[in-house]
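Module 6 notes. Inverse folding takes a fixed backbone as the condition and produces residue identities as the prediction. Think of it as a translation problem where the source language is geometry and the target language is the twenty amino acids. Below is one complete input and output pair. Work through it position by position during the lab.
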């Protein structure tokens, strides 16, 4: 992998359907009078509001208010929040042992870690998360409910869970420190099925091990490979780019446009690829976003894979992590991605080569029962009929 400018951007913000209602006004330089106005307002609130307010909380609210006007993905993180974020990027976290996806504005359990407390309490793939610590998911930003599941190991969280067709139940979990897998595999009719739920710093190495397992343990060359990116919200961009590189011998993978120089980059594939003679199908839907769109777009534009499903979400932006002196961090949108053909991903998404109605999405369970997933069946049919890439 060759990067003309190395970028250290961690893109772990989940695709978020909320958008700003108003456009920002034209740029105007900040003046000393503006700063004086801010301090005047701060002093008036601190000294005269009907009830005393914590001064630090007021300042944090001002910072968060400023960042919230930018876009849905920029975020100020306290030192504790940044540590949690960094753990997630590394593929580890303090939580209950579930991967959560978004389906029709609902939180759905994509995967249950068999070593975690959720598994021990009977939570299953496909269950719905209705409330976290007595705060309903409905009416709250989904990302906030997802974040509320995370926390320090040993802390307790209450979760209302419902298995479709059954009554909801209240469960209490003690969070644990867990490693979280992001790549899952199965095989059907000689075709490897690989589900990538999100991208951590380890996801490309996970994929490498999975491909080795599929070939060596089944004792045969794969007749095709399905990369299932449905409902993949993105994650660490370097892992997605490394995966694209692993399936390409040369040429452009992705480039960005930015006024922040560390986020300006062009990434080219290096010679040598995994499974060079194996046809690839990439499955996407309207919840496939960010780094997942980079991977799908690169393989599509370079003719290495056929993309099947729905137009993707259209989150083509980089969130760079800018460290503050006190251990806090600012996750700030600093660039937009472009596919090798020069197409923008942001707010446009990736158009599939073959469109399939995915109004019912069963991607995670499909690796356990692939015969129940018509989209995987369609992909296998295409690959076995000789539509190689």
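Target side of the pair, the amino acids:
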């Amino acid at each position: 992998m060759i990067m003309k400018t190395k970028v250290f951007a961690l893109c772990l913000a989940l695709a978020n359907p909320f958008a700003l209602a108003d456009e920002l006004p034209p740029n105007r330089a900040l003046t000393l009078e503006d700063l004086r106005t801010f301090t005047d307002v701060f002093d008036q609130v601190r000294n005269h509001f009907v009830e005393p307010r914590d001064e630090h909380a007021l300042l944090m609210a001002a910072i968060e208010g400023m960042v919230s006007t930018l876009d849905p993905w920029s975020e100020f993180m306290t030192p504790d929040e940044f540590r949690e974020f960094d753990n997630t990027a590394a593929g580890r976290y303090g939580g209950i042992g579930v991967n959560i996806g978004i389906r029709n504005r609902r939180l759905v359990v994509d995967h249950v870690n068999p070593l975690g407390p959720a598994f021990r309490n009977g939570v299953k793939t496909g269950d719905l998360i209705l409330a976290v610590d007595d705060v309903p998911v409905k009416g709250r930003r989904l990302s906030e409910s997802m974040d509320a599941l995370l926390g320090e190991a040993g802390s307790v969280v209450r979760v209302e869970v419902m298995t479709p067709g059954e009554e909801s139940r209240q469960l209490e979990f003690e969070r644990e420190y867990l490693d979280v897998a992001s790549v899952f595999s199965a095989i059907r009719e000689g075709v490897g099925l690989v589900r990538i739920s999100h991208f951590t710093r380890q996801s490309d190495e996970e994929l490498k091990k999975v491909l080795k397992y599929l070939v060596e343990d089944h004792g045969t060359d794969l007749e095709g490979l399905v990369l299932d990116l449905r409902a993949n919200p993105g994650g660490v961009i370097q892992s997605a780019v490394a995966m694209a590189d692993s399936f390409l011998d040369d040429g452009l993978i992705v480039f960005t446009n930015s006024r922040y120089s560390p986020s300006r980059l062009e990434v080219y594939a290096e010679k040598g690829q995994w499974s060079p003679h194996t046809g690839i199908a990439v499955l996407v839907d309207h919840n496939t976003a960010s780094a997942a769109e980079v991977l799908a777009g690169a393989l599509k534009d370079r003719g290495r894979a056929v993309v099947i499903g729905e137009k993707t979400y259209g989150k083509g932006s980089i969130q760079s992590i800018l460290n503050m002196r006190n251990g806090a961090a600012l996750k700030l949108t600093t660039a937009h991605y472009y596919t090798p053909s020069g197409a923008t991903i942001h707010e446009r998404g990736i158009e599939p080569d073959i469109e399939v109605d995915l109004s019912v999405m069963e991607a995670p369970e499909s690796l356990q029962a692939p015969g129940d997933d018509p989209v995987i069946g369609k992909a296998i049919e295409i690959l076995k009929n000789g539509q190689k890439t």
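Reference fact for the lab report: DSSP finds ten helices and 20 strands in the chain.
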